[in-house]
């Protein structure tokens, strides 16, 4: 049985300036997006993406992730708390970013980018889909360092069961690391392979939605559920699992439509 290392959430302190690990994970995510975006454009030149366009795309994506992710956390998971403490809504350095909110924010940002730069919405989302999972992995590692979003109680026989001392003395699943491996590394490998060859429009986007939805849905069985707008558990499912259901449905629909239109 392991014990969480209880990292200092501040990675670097320079006088009054503090750099948090959570912020560094976001910088890592954005850096990987730029690097992988260039590699993806180079291996698929027929898609017509330039380094300058990828940099602009990142700027739109950053705004979508930060604004959407924070608003998603406020509205989907902890509305009562943040409405009672509105001054804490901008405090993203303390953690608390919803994937589903960030996802909606990125969709809005990609639609706006496409309109302003003459690219179709599905062209944009198909291009960015394989670039996203590594950023998700970085975010989950940030959650682990922060000691937040811990897992459900686990069997004491589980070799990697972990105690989070500020919660209780129970061994728990390190669900942040499960999600980093599943929604991050595994999903990246699948999408990077899937997008290496020409695919019908919408297919890569559909694969991302279906893959993320399935992996997050499964990971929630090991993670302590957030209360959320649907309650802690409604019909045995967490709020995050309910939010994954439409993602999976739309993912299947996009794959079917892409196959039919191709």
TrEMBL record:
Subcellular location: Cell membrane
Enzyme Commission number(s): 2.5.1.145
PROSITE patterns registered for this protein in UniProt: LGT
Membrane topology according to the record: Multi-pass membrane protein
Source species: Pseudothauera nasutitermitis
Record's function text: Catalyzes the transfer of the diacylglyceryl group from phosphatidylglycerol to the sulfhydryl group of the N-terminal cysteine of a prolipoprotein, the first step in the formation of mature lipoproteins.
Cell division is among the record's keywords: no
Class in the EC hierarchy, top level: transferase
A GO MF term: phosphatidylglycerol-prolipoprotein diacylglyceryl transferase activity
Family: Belongs to the Lgt family.
Entry-linked InterPro entries: Lgt
Transmembrane segments: 20-37, 57-77, 97-114, 126-145, 176-194, 201-219, 239-257
Protein's recorded name: Phosphatidylglycerol--prolipoprotein diacylglyceryl transferase
GO cellular component: plasma membrane
